[in-house]
# Entry
Amino acid sequence: MSRQSMEFRRGVGAILITICVPPAWNCAQLLAQDSTPHWVPFVAKLVEEEVHKPPGGMSVHVTIAGVFVRNSRGVLYRRMVASVGSDLPVQGLSLDTADLHDRPHRIRYEIDYVNKTIKRESDPSGDPDFAVGPMSRADFDRRHAADLSLGKQIVAGVECEGYKLSDPRHKGKYRGEAWFAPSVDFLLVRYSGRLSSGAAVTLEVKDLEPGKEPDPSFFRLPEGFKLVK
# Structure
């Protein structure tokens, strides 16, 4: 899934610049912006399981889990704390990171709690994580026109629509299976497939509470962290 943009992935840091980062915005002011499209808020937990198998080596099991929330303005926060089922290192793995997506301002922050750094990214064209408003039914259907429908089932306590995701590089083949919740703005609640590294991966939203506004403190940048580029 190549750390993809279906509401689930994280980034990797780079060169440090010594500069303090103030809070991005006041959440109370953000919620007062009536012109911002309304999203279905939720509070949940996100759990990712990865199995890495280096050539000629033994398999390494990685669990990544943490809080996963979104407010009614579409601002999303997900924290990912990793634990590795062996002493072997996993290339590119960060142990405690978070994504903070400020959709109304079209900005994403990647927060590294281990190194106390923040990386800021602005509005890459075509990335659905930066859409100001929720995806429409028509847009969702167009996005999955080439995928194989698996029907409906209850996942994480909500009705979901499932698809085998077509592989654009290999006609007639699929790169994973995904389940989306239309009632929660087509939130991806379960995925199984492979990362670009070849590692097998499963993602699942657990303890989902649709309609619940998260604590505003989730959407404040930590003070004293360094900005990276």
Notes: Residues 16-228 form a domain with the outer membrane lipoprotein receptor (LolB), chain A fold (CATH 2.50.20.10). The first strand starts at residue 16 and ends at 20.
